[in-house]
Structure formats: C-alpha cells, structure tokens
Amino acid sequence: MYQEINFEKIDLHKKPPTEEPARQYYFMAKCRQWVDAFEQKKGRLPGACVVNMGCQMNAKDSEKLKGILETVGFVLQDSEDTDFVIYNTCTVRENANNKVYGRLGTLQSIKKKNPDMMIALCGCMMQEPEVVAKIKQSYRHVDLIFGTHNLFKFAELLAQCFASKQMVIDVWEETDQIVEELPIDRKYAFKSGVNIMFGCNNFCSYCIVPYVRGRERSRKPQDILREIEALVADGVVEIMLLGQNVNSYGKNLDVPVTFARLLEEVEKIDGLERIRFMTSHPKDLSDELIAVMAKSKKICRHLHLPLQSGSSRILKKMNRHYDKEQYLSLVERIRAAVPDIAITTDIIVGFPGETEEDFLETMDVVEKVRYDSAFTFIYSKRTGTPAADMEDQIPEDVIKDRFDRLLERVQKIGTEKSKEIERTVQEVLVEEINAQDASLVSGRLSNNSVVHFPGDASMIGKLVRVSLTECKGFYYLGEVAG
Asked: Rounded to two decimals, what is the model's pTM?
C-alpha cells in the first residue's frame, strides 16, 4: 500500500484519520514537512541510524522503522553520529540493558556538539516501567520512548517529537492491534522475515519476553499469504516465518488455523523457493507439522528446537511443559520423518537448583540428539522473572566448569555432524560477497550452514549447486558444481 501513497494529496489541514494505517500515512506526510524545512535550513537531508539490539523479531521491527524513516525523507546511515538515532532494544538479559545505558552516555557528548540531534528508544527494554523511570531521571537527552506494542505508531510519535520540546513517552501495557501495510526497508532483496504472530503465552520461569511482548496474537493467514506473495513478486526467494512460538500460531484466531496448515498454504506460492521458521517450542510441535515438513519441497532442512535443560526436574522448574523423555521422543519422530534435517538448540547452564546430576542429564540429551549446533548460555538472573527469586543460585565457578564441558562436547559433535555432507553437492542461496576475500561469495545451505566459494556479485540472491570440497568445522569451502 505505501508504494502507492501520494503524500502531496494528503490534506494536513484536516484532522488525522482515526483508522490505521491511513492515520500513520497522515503523520508521515507531516514529518515530510519537517524534513523539507530541515533541508532548506541545512542544505541536506537529515541522517538517521537504526540500531537493532535484539532477536529476529526485533530485526524485522527495525526494518519497519527504517522503512518509515526513508518514506519520511531521512537518509539511512550506519554511524550514530547523525541527526536521528534510534535503539531498538532487547531485554532478555540484564547486560543488554547496561549496554543501552552505556551507549546513551556516549550519545550525550555527541548531542552536545549537535543540539538538534534526536535520540529515540523502543523495543522490549522500554516495556519495563523501572527502565523508563531511570531514563526520565538520568538520561534527559533522550527525545522519544515507545515500546513493542505501538511500534506501528512510529510516524505519529515522530511528528509529536518534532513539535515538542520535551521528552515524548508512549508505552502501552498491551494491545490486540495488528496494523498491516506500513513501509519497510528490507536488509536483503532476496530473503525476508515475515511476522506470523506476536507475543508469548508460555511464561518460562527465566524469561522476561511474555511480560514485554504481551500475549500471543496471530495475524490472519490471508494477510500473511498476501505479504509473502508481494515479497515474491519483488524478488524474494526465501522467507522466514517469525514468532516467539510459531507452533502455537492460529489458536487465537476467530477461525483457528494450525501452523502446519499455514505452511501448506505458503508452500503453494509460486516463485517462493525456501521456507524457514523460528522459534519452535517443543511442547507445541505436532505430528501434523512433522508430516508437513516431511513432504514439503520448500521447507528448509533445519529445525531450531530449544532444549534449555535435559533434566526433567529442571524443565519443570523452568515451566517448559515437557520432560526429557518427551523431548527425545519428539526428536526421534522428527528424524524418522525427515532424516536429513539439521537440528539446532538453546541450552541454559546453571539454572537455580541445577545439580551435577541435572547437568549430566543435559549432557546425555546432547549425546543422544547430536545437535548440528547449539547456542549455549550461562543462566542470567533476570529481574522480574520467577527464576530470579529462586533459592539455590549456582556459584559462578561451578557454572563456568559445566559451561566449558558442555561447549566442548557440543562443538565436537557439531564438527562431526558437519563432515557428514563434506564432498557432496548441495544447493546454496548466495547472500553476499565474502567479507574477507572478494573473490568468494558466501551463502547458506538448506540446513542453514554457511558456504564460501568462488563467485561474483551476479550470483547474489540465486540458488547455486555447489560441491562442498572441505568442511572447516562450522562452515564449508566449495566450488560451483559442474
């Protein structure tokens, strides 16, 4: 829709529309007036820098922020020494918050040299009232604060910011709104993330996400399919369906639709070559979904299936709603249906009350599943979660010892798994010129592994058959197959 908007025809003398997204286009037109005035005064367009600090959901949100800024007339830049800086924050771990405070301190000195500079904060961290209170008190040079639920209002808030000489704060506790058809600036021309749902209902005891992202809200399947069709028409060949727990998609729709059924509809879209999705919660991964994955020609042979712990006792304390045996049974069914699938995972070490026996249960799952790779985390006490108040917090030296043992085993198994397809021919989606060697291009296999091989920019965005000549642990060197 935004590509068809004629901003010259928007009458700014009238009151703004009440319905979305027309209301936001009205405010984009208002912001364009501010940009015009800026250009007349300074002889150039204003610059903007969007800094993404979080997950794939945040990355998608950042693309929307960039799209709105570009539509308004800002020139996107990488440097934070510019006219408008916005941090799209994460709050999964408390050190993420500290990182933001540190960056704000640096920006204060930059803003002193450029008083017209504007600073905005959004994302999960802004959903915490104590964070907003701290910024109001200690970081008065911030101009705009908003959260995860009203990101669609960015243009309206920006206009308010331009008109105000005071800090603008607009953080919603929750919402059931999903606003479609706003501008977006994609990082890649050939692949894109697509939100299928927002929020989370799981309340894992260590996780702040449900408190800052709100309850699960699924987009209508027809809106998702229409977006993907438009992306494919614009050159996209790979999409990633995004949600905090994609397996629970569709439960809150007026007419419930399973995630497996949605995937079947996505598969029918002509021109789409690859489908990825994340994140999958084991408790909701159905046999229906496994069957759809098995017969699909487009769903990538990669599944991220967070374990978190191999101990049934700890899993119960984590409020994960499955035990060790159920997880292993699920993996067995997946591997039986899709033998060539790569399974990756998340594992937390040092959860409160974790004993050596509990840790060895985790190591046992690692040995049995043989993950292609794993993201391993030291438990981070997150204020505001039930786990933060649990007794038996584990000493740091014990956690570090367990973490090192786990990491060593995960990496060894991952290397062994990678070698299984060495010297085979695989299809690679070329993503970019290699950063270290301009004679090489880099891309990804269906199983998400990275491959580097000789090529040029004409290959970017194309699927190329590549012979994997050498496994280098977690990536491959290859050459175009003859």
From this structure: 0.87
